[in-house]
């Protein structure tokens, strides 16, 4: 949520966000990108253009259904990107969803 939050307009926050809980079985192919494989400036804002290469290859090659990348905001945490074009995507189970609004205190 923080990764997304740092990119929204505080004067016009989105009102159509949804939080979804998903179960990704261990057998669903995934690839993790460790920090040491990223360019030294990977946490810069705006993000270096070369970072897009990881996501572009992930979608294009369809070798994995899940790409795990470090969060630029909280590097000890990860973002999980899902590829709906991968053949094993159908094995990922969506468990619950609910409307989400950022707490207005975050904008102060």
| Secondary-structure content class | alpha+beta
Largest sheet: 3 strands, mixed
Average pLDDT, all residues: 90
Q: List segments where confidence is low: pLDDT < 50 over at least 5 consecutive residues.
A: none
Helix content: 10-25%
Overall strand count: 5
| N/C terminus separation | 17 Å
Number of separate structural domains: 1
Lateral strand order in the biggest sheet: 2-3-4
Structure annotation, total helices: 2
Order of helices and strands: HEEHEEE
Percent of sequence in beta strands? 25-35%
- The geometry reads as globular
Can you give a write-up of this model?
The longest helix has 10 residues, at 52-61. It is globular, with a radius of gyration of 15 Å. The protein has a three-stranded mixed beta sheet with strand order 2-3-4, with no helix packed on it. Strands 1-5 form a two-stranded antiparallel ribbon. It has one domain (2-12, 25-102). It has helices spanning 2-5, 52-61, and strands at 17-23, 30-32, 66-70, 78-82, 93-100. It is α+β, with helices and mostly antiparallel strands. Helices cover 13% and strands 26% of the residues. The mean pLDDT is 90.
Topology summary:
Elements: H1 2-5, E1 17-23, E2 30-32, H2 52-61, E3 66-70, E4 78-82, E5 93-100
Parallel strand pairs: 2-3
Antiparallel strand pairs: 1-5, 3-4
